[in-house]
Design goal:
Elements lengths: L2 H5 L11 H20 L16 H6 L1 H4 L3 E14 L2 E8 L2 E8 H4 L1 H8 L6 E10 L5 E12 L15 H6 L1 H7 L1 H24 L3 E2 L5 E2 L11 E4 L4 E5 L4 H9 L4 E9 L11 E10 L3 H20 L3 E4 L2 E4 L5 E4 H9 L9 H10 L4 H4 L4 H13 L10 E4 L11 E2 L2 E5 L1 E6 L2 E8 L4 H17 L10 H10 L3 E7 H9 L18 H6 L15 E2 L10 H5 L3 E11 L7 E6 L5 E6 L14 E5 L5 E3 L2 E3 L2 E2 L1 E6 L2 E6 L14
Parallel strand pairs: 3-5, 6-10, 14-15
Antiparallel strand pairs: 1-2, 1-4, 2-3, 4-5, 7-9, 8-9, 10-11, 11-20, 12-13, 15-18, 16-17, 18-19, 19-20, 21-29, 22-23, 22-25, 23-24, 25-28, 26-27, 29-30
Length: 653
């Protein structure tokens, strides 16, 4: 290969490389590295470079820096050659600055090696600051050292790194190519720092650390991740909340404590939910729910002010004024405003069930619900998704005791608790209580929730925690507790459309997961299936004419996404490709039989011309077909899945 070919640097500002071209460029870069190493110029042996200036600081202080020698370091992002001189752009942690590289200053040998450099290479540079005739602040290079060789080809400036999936997987490249992404994470750090400052300086909280690995996943109603401690031969869980440990510390005399850290919930993923997320919980002895409202207002509004310079933020085209005080809204008033159902006039469980069924809730699901549980379900199903209704900021208060196992009862109405949830943009961003400190009441609530876990009626119910009850028996003072979803607050303040945009390394399915499944050993011979205990429903005796039958539109559908519906034990939400240009959403109550991740990519059968039916506040547009029978008194269900060679939209006859 000619020297000219080796030194050729495909300009990523103008050319989009094919996969073949990328492979060739990578090969050339490795060859260049080999030449450097053979010449005793191995960049990977260099340990440090003394940096005394940064790009943006030089620009901001040009009058002071003009003519002075600086030492900078960063990644070469552009290279414009002009014979015996070149201009390059160096990107460091604060921005970019132009550098002027001249052959007669560097020397012929050094300039020869510089010409072999590639976009993405990291350099240490010494030179004097000046301004070009075009007004560009520049460093006149007197010395430059290759600190690290980039063997990969960066995306070009025009096409950029646009694929969001690749951006999340290769965040390091995303940060290099997209300054606004870097700015978002710098803002994230500033927001977290300000939240901690407000808690510590304005309210006197002490930051503490509590266990992440626990034997009881308490403090919230959620499904935990499970693991095993080999040495202790002990099943353990990743924490879903740090509440109960923090309240133990208040019992121990640490009157104001907080912790900000990672929580883990083995639940659905969407634009607002990641299985691993950042939460802050704080507890203040001798204070109540009203005080924690003040803490919430101050923490969120001052974090916004620090990051944006204003307490009025804009999120996806809507503005929100976070200036305290925030509005209060009773949960029962919200349900009345949206549905017309007045829970102040409903006294019994039966009356509540009748009202819920009248609003379209599933008769079977509400059959075992109490008045309080139905109030909470109606709020979630009918109020939370009404556009603009909970834009807030607003505190929703008056939560039923059935869904608030750790909150004090309201002395004026023991059916509800001293609890609030804060909403902005319709999202719950905070949850707080006047903490329950009655050990007898707490034990009974735990006992009831444990029974729901045991009988399978609620797999997210709170487990019994006898050590926590023991702590309450020692004596927990009146306490105000608060939990804030830090990631959601950061999304709002930084105007990020997805939680993945404000988490550096969000949870992603490995790219090779499907191939690993394919490489599993072949299954043993098919088991012999015993149908002797099968019971089926009697066949219909009434005949249906062909015209009526033909009106049902059965189609093959590809399952693009599948997730559990929050607050429902049975429902899965399917996003389906039905062969048209629009996704179809269907809800199906088959979570007892399938985990959502196991169904993604499968081909199923659906009726697609049924009218939309609202389920848990979501329009279900059609019905997936399942085969149902009974066996030994138990219902069995199989979702009808067909050959993946059948295309989406294929009609069944």
């Amino acid at each position: 290969m000619s020297e000219q070919k080796k030194n050729q640097n495909v300009n990523p500002d103008t050319e989009e490389l094919t996969e073949e071209g990328l492979s060739e460029q990578r090969r050339i870069r490795r060859e260049k590295l080999k030449n450097l190493q053979e010449a005793g110029r191995n960049p990977y042996l260099i340990e440090k470079w003394d940096v005394n200036a940064y790009s943006q600081d030089i620009k901001d202080r040009f009058e002071e820096m003009d003519g002075k020698e600086v030492s900078i370091a960063g990644r070469m992002m552009a290279k414009r050659g002009m014979g015996k001189a070149s201009f390059i752009d160096i990107q460091d942690s604060k921005g970019r600055i132009q550098c002027h590289v001249k052959k007669d200053v560097l020397g012929e040998e050094e300039y020869k090696w510089f010409k072999t450099s590639d976009i993405g290479d990291l350099f240490g540079i010494v030179g004097k600051v000046f301004q070009t005739q075009r007004g560009e602040i520049t460093v006149e290079v007197s010395k430059m050292v290759l600190l690290s060789k980039s063997l990969q080809v960066l995306p070009n400036k025009w096409h950029g790194l646009k694929d969001t999936d690749i951006r999340y997987r290769q965040r390091y490249v995303d940060l290099i190519m997209n300054q606004d992404v870097k700015d978002t994470f710098i803002k994230r750090a500033a927001i977290i720092k300000e939240i901690k400052r407000v808690l510590e300086e304005d309210f006197g909280y002490l930051e503490v650390d509590t266990p992440i690995l626990t034997t009881i996943a308490g403090g919230a109603n959620a499904r935990p991740f499970e693991t095993h401690h080999n040495t202790l031969d002990l099943d353990m869980k990743l924490r879903i909340s740090n509440e109960l440990y923090l309240k133990r510390l208040v019992v121990g005399g640490l009157d104001r404590v907080y912790e900000m850290g990672k929580m883990f919930r083995n639940e659905g993923m969407d634009r607002n939910h990641n299985p691993e997320f950042t939460s802050m919980e704080c507890y203040m002895a001798y204070e109540d729910m009203e005080k924690t409202m003040e803490v919430t207002e101050q923490v969120v509004s001052k974090a916004a002010l620090k990051a944006t310079g204003s307490m009025v933020i804009e999120y996806q085209g809507k503005k929100f004024d976070l200036t305290p005080p925030w509005r209060r809204l009773r949960m029962s008033d919200a349900v009345k405003e949206i549905t017309g159902v007045d829970f102040d006039q409903i006294q019994t469980d039966e009356e509540a069930r009748t009202a819920a069924i009248g609003q379209g809730m599933d008769k079977d699901e509400v059959q075992e619900m109490t008045r309080g549980k139905i109030l909470a379900e109606m709020f979630e199903e009918y109020c939370e998704d009404v556009p603009g209704y909970l834009d807030g900021p607003v505190f929703v208060v008056g939560h039923p005791v059935e869904i608030s196992p750790l909150a004090k009862r309201d002395p004026e109405d023991p059916r509800i608790t001293r609890r609030f949830e804060a909403y902005i943009n319709g999202w719950e961003i905070a949850n707080a209580f006047s903490e329950l400190n009655d050990p007898i009441d707490q034990y009974e609530r735990f006992k009831e929730q444990q029974a729901q876990l045991d009988d399978g009626s609620d797999d997210e119910a709170h487990p019994m925690d006898e050590d926590f009850v023991n702590a309450l028996e020692v004596g927990l003072p009146p306490t105000g507790g608060l939990g804030i979803g830090i990631d959601r607050v950061i999304m709002l303040i930084t105007n990020a459309p997805s939680i993945r945009d404000i988490i550096l390394f969000p949870t992603m399915k490995p790219l090779d997961s499907d191939s690993k499944k394919a490489k599993k050993p072949a299954a043993a011979a098919p088991e012999k299936i015993d149908f002797s205990n099968v019971e089926i429903e009697p066949l219909f005796e009434d005949m249906v004419d062909f015209d009526t039958f033909s009106k049902s539109d059965f189609r093959a559908v590809k399952i693009k996404e599948c997730e559990a519906v929050p607050k429902s034990k049975k429902l899965l939400k399917f996003v389906l490709d039905d062969g048209t240009d629009e996704d179809r959403v269907i809800l199906s109550g088959i979570h007892d039989y399938y985990e959502p991740e196991d169904l993604v990519g499968k081909t199923a059968i659906a009726i697609v011309n049924l009218p939309p039916r609202k389920m848990m506040g979501i329009d279900s547009c059609g019905m997936l077909i399942s085969a149902v029978h009974h066996e030994k008194g138990e219902e069995r269900l199989h979702l009808l899945m067909v050959d993946d060679h059948i295309p989406a939209g294929a009609k069944l006859y």
